[in-house]
From TrEMBL, chain A:
HAMAP family: RsxB_RnfB (MF_00463). Part of a membrane-bound complex that couples electron transfer with translocation of ions across the membrane. The gene is rsxB. Pfam families: Fer4_21, FeS. It is an enzyme of class 7 (translocase). The complex is composed of six subunits: RnfA, RnfB, RnfC, RnfD, RnfE and RnfG. Its EC number is 7.-.-.-. This is Ion-translocating oxidoreductase complex subunit B.
Automatic annotation (TrEMBL), chain B:
Its cofactor is [4Fe-4S] cluster. Residues 516-527, 587-616, 642-661, 688-705 have a biased composition (Low complexity). This is Ion-translocating oxidoreductase complex subunit C. Binds 2 [4Fe-4S] clusters per subunit. The complex is composed of six subunits: RnfA, RnfB, RnfC, RnfD, RnfE and RnfG. InterPro entries: 4Fe4S_Fe-S-bd, 4Fe4S_Fe_S_CS, Ion_transpt_RnfC/RsxC, Nuo51_FMN-bd, Nuo51_FMN-bd_sf, RnfC_N.
């Protein structure tokens, strides 16, 4: 009987000890935010365009962590959906039609001589990529523009265009099938074969 | 580390794994002399011809430039300037066909040459010892010299020592088939090449110099050995011909037996590799003050009648060059060698600093891999790879676009030499796949960087907005507190004489306040009228009348001022009718500034009208009128127009106020709008303004359409405006 009591006491003491340790750890190492939100946020394209229905990428990341669908991000496209599916162990779905938009990268362009300097687009830009002042012409910092087109709607004179990004010599991706270029190899070597 | 002294005496050469032995085809073009340059009618100079950024263009269209004149200013580290290769007029600065496999355009300066080939004033140095090292580096930089062997890395940066350089390796291997540009250059200008080498060696604090030349160029080896006979720090080494021995890392391995670390650069081993052509360019720049404006280009291939090496002015359109040498029907031109070169999609692309060879192949000279078959995993490619990669694995991963695996298999170490594709029995265009994969990886990295930046900007913007909000709230609070305090003080002053003690005074004050309120309520009952529909609405007529009076006064003042202004400016002295708007209409206008002002006013008005419309649907008609009228008006005279604009502005404002107050709207607006009318539209700007206004209008209408939610909204607003 003694042995049983002893065992109960010992186990109880251990339980108490571990309980305390866990309780302490829970307070000491408390995570303020779900770390998965940051991981999701990393995968999102950060255009802050709001096409998902949330006011930015982080809110959408939070919503995904809370169980929202992963297929609401048109700028990210299928690649992002696939990565999110991998991260969250969910099924990859095709992009939700309600959120689908044209699949071309664009950048905002202000027709400067039509700009009246109302600053409305500046207030709309989520990444501060438009410079200008009241009654001064505005312009877009193309390098910083994410192509979210949030500035187009507020413009009272409709002088903002979303232009597709054209590839330059530096960003070109060797899509040789688009133009008639062939890879070149010489005829069979006279000396023959490769060096071993 | 390498024992460099030993390199001067030893006969030992190392080897690297892999490599191939293609048919060299250099005999056709290697004979001397190098043909003199030809001045084309037009030269096209891309502003960026190297790795890095372009400089800042410092010439304008229509300007005459002299041969050797700086066309772009190198404004930052990796920028290399370009120069006019011959004298002429800058015809255009625009996007032009690039010498690039994509066939895309890039910023190009087009010069129509005048045929005089007139030099800018030159100040050659007879003795380079006069120059300090820094001056020499600047001179090299401003001569626009970038690596002439392959990639085109800015030479000046490579010659600015970052580490202790023990070996300067001169690359004269020229291992790729067909090309013999460096070969002939070394034969014909060995002394100048050596002069350049000495200058480079001086900048690197006199390291040991080894000039490596493949053994299929005996004449070049001979010439260089003779030219360097006097210098015991320089040694010419003959290396076995094998492709790609001319690769920077491969050459280092052959000469020193050392391998450049995976993510390192040769300077980590104390080695700098330079092309012999670059050395020649340095010598020309210092001793002849001749910037890099021409280079040796091998013109070869079965369709070229007389394959040879030519001096070619940089910027010479390849098409024109080949026409000049008797080639008319051009179907295929390859820039560079057959292993690493590319077919030029647009023949109007120019010769640039890195163009060493142009091949116009015959029908069956070069095979094209139309008959690609699946990979059989024979492993020949892995044997041929000079950098120990596994090309067939890379092939599968590239097909699967598995970027992670590609990086794991060190795709970035691939030098794109084409040896794997050359030996592939299935004729798979392996290098092309790798290039695509590399570009895709680069793009996705760039994307990631960009999204990271966007995130930061978004977050800092949110932070800023938050702070602004807090600051505003604080300010409001402070203001409110100040008001409260002032009120309390006033009350205290008022009640102080009556009250004997604090409590009493407070009570008295409260009572007084209540009484005052009551009295106010009784003495001034809110004026109201009852409109037709039987609704009681507040009567603002008194207030409106007062406002009207004030405005009339203001108008009169403004009219006077305007009149003054018009007379001062000496413009057509118009008679000033009581209604100032009339006069604004009559002022003729013509120039840019005025038109712009008018445009701005028109837009502002349109916008304001739009806002009004949203508030009160009944204003739609007059608003449209107003905007139309302002549009058609061209302006003639700065001042007058500005006056007109100001008047129109004021009027619009007044109208807006009236409308908002709920007074009868239609009449005055209609009046107003009539006044600014009847002017013939004249110039471009006016048309553009009209367009902008039309757009604004269209937008507003669209918004209205959306806003017209209930059918009863319109009748109600009509009632109001009628009352």
């Amino acid at each position: 009987m003694d042995a049983v009591f002893l065992a109960l006491i010992a186990l109880g003491a251990l339980a108490l000890l571990f309980g305390l340790a866990l309780g302490y750890a829970a307070i000491k190492f408390k995570v303020d935010e779900d770390p998965i939100v940051d991981q999701i946020d990393q995968l999102l394209p950060q255009t802050q365009c709001g096409q998902c229905g949330y006011p930015g990428c982080k809110p959408y990341a939070k919503a995904i962590a809370d169980g929202d669908e992963i297929n609401k991000c048109p700028p990210g496209g299928d690649a992002t959906i696939k990565r999110l599916a991998d991260l969250l162990g969910r099924e990859a779905k095709p992009l939700n039609d309600a959120h689908a938009g044209p699949d071309i990268k664009t950048v905002a362009y202000i027709r400067e001589d039509e700009c009246i300097g109302c600053t409305k687009c500046i207030q709309a830009c989520p990444v501060d990529a438009i410079v200008g002042a009241a009654r001064q012409m505005h312009t877009v910092i193309a390098d910083e523009c994410t192509g979210c087109d949030l500035c187009v709607e507020p413009c009272p004179v409709d002088c903002i265009d979303m232009l597709p990004v054209t590839p330059t010599v530096q960003t070109w991706q060797w899509q040789l099938n688009e133009i008639p270029v062939k890879q070149i190899t010489t005829e069979a070597a006279v000396n023959g074969g490769s060096a071993k | 580390m390498i024992d460099v002294k030993q390199l001067l005496t030893t006969d030992k050469l190392w080897d690297y794994k892999g490599g191939v032995f293609p048919k060299y085809n250099k005999e056709q073009s290697r004979q001397l002399p190098i043909q003199p340059y030809w001045i084309p009618p037009v030269v096209r100079i891309p502003v960026r011809q190297h790795i890095g950024q372009s400089g800042h263009i410092n010439v304008t269209e229509g300007e005459r430039v002299l041969k050797g004149q700086l066309l772009t200013e190198p404004t930052h580290g990796m920028a290399v300037p370009v120069h006019a290769p011959t004298s002429g007029i800058i015809e255009s600065i625009s996007q032009g066909a690039a010498n690039h496999p994509s066939g895309l355009s890039e910023l190009t300066l087009t010069i129509r040459s005048d045929g005089n080939d007139e030099w800018r004033p030159r100040q050659p140095y007879a003795n380079a010892d006069e120059l300090s090292n820094d001056d020499l580096l600047q001179l090299i930089r401003y001569a626009g010299i970038s690596g002439m062997g392959g990639a085109g890395f800015p030479t000046e940066i490579k010659l600015t020592p970052v580490a202790d350089i023990k070996l300067l390796l001169m690359n004269g291997a020229e291992c790729e088939p067909y090309i013999s540009a460096d070969d002939t250059l070394m034969q014909a200008h060995a002394n100048e090449v050596v002069q350049g080498i000495l200058l480079m060696a001086r900048l690197l604090d006199h390291p040991v110099v080894v000039i490596a030349i493949e053994d299929d160029k005996p004449e070049a080896i001979e010439a260089m050995t003779q030219a360097t006979a006097d210098y015991d720090q320089i040694r010419v080494r003959s290396i076995p011909a094998k492709y790609p021995s001319g690769g920077e890392r491969q050459l280092i391995q052959i000469i020193t037996g050392e391998e450049v670390p995976h993510s390192g650069i040769p300077a980590d081993l104390g080695i700098v590799v330079q092309n012999v052509g670059t050395a020649h360019a340095v010598a020309r720049a210092v001793y002849h003050d001749e910037p890099l404006i021409s280079r040796v280009v091998t013109l070869t291939g079965q369709r070229v009648l007389k394959p040879a090496n030519h001096w070619v002015l940089l910027g010479t359109p390849i098409e024109d060059l080949l026409h000049h040498h008797g080639l008319d029907e051009l179907s295929q031109v390859i820039v560079g060698g057959p292993m690493m070169g590319y077919q030029l999609p647009k023949l109007s692309g120019p010769v640039i600093k890195t163009t060493n060879c142009l091949i116009v192949p015959g029908q069956n000279e070069l095979s094209s891999p139309d008959n690609q078959v699946p990979c059989i995993r024979c492993g020949s490619c892995a044997d041929a790879c000079p950098v120990n990669l596994l090309p067939q694995q890379l092939h599968w991963y590239a097909l699967a676009e598995d970027h992670e695996k590609l990086s794991e298999h060190n795709l970035n170490d691939c030098i794109e030499c084409g040896a794997c594709a050359y030996v592939c029995p299935s004729e798979i265009p392996l290098v092309l796949e790798y290039r695509q994969a590399k570009a895709a990886i680069r793009a996705s990295k760039q994307e990631q960087l960009k999204s990271e930046r966007a995130k930061q900007r978004f977050e800092s913007r949110n932070l800023r907005l938050e702070q602004e909000k807090i600051a505003r709230a604080e300010k409001h609070q402070q203001a409110a507190q100040a008001r409260l305090k002032a009120m309390a003080e006033r009350e205290q002053q008022a009640s102080a004489p009556a009250a004997t003690d604090d409590k009493k005074s407070a009570v008295a004050a409260a009572l007084a306040r209540a009484k005052a309120k009551k009295a106010g309520a009784v003495s001034a009952p809110p004026k109201t009228v009852v409109d037709e529909s039987g609704q009681t609405i507040p009567d603002n007529r008194d207030v409106a009348a007062q406002r009207e009076a004030r405005k009339a006064e203001a108008r009169a003042r403004k009219a006077q001022k305007a009149a003054q202004a018009v007379q001062d400016s000496g413009a057509t002295p118009t008679e000033l009718p009581a209604d100032s708007a009339q006069q604004s209409a009559d002022v003729p206008a013509a120039d840019n500034k005025a038109a712009r002002v008018a445009a701005a006013v028109a837009r502002a008005k349109a916008k304001r009208q739009a806002q009004q419309t949203q508030a009160d649907d009944s204003v739609e008609q007059p608003a449209a009128n107003l905007t139309e009228q302002v549009t058609g008006k061209p302006a003639a005279d700065d001042k007058a127009a500005r006056v007109a604009a100001a008047v129109a502005h004021a009027k619009a404002k007044r109208q807006a106020q009236q409308t908002q107050a709920g007074d009868s709207v239609e009449q005055p607006v209609a009046n107003l709008t009539e006044q600014v009318t009847d002017k013939p539209a004249a110039d471009d700007k006016a048309a553009r303004v009209a367009a902008a206004v039309a757009r604004a209008k269209a937008k507003r209408q669209a918004q209205q359409a959306e806003n017209q939610r209930s059918p009863d909204a319109t009748p109600r607003s009509k009632d109001q405006s009628d009352s």
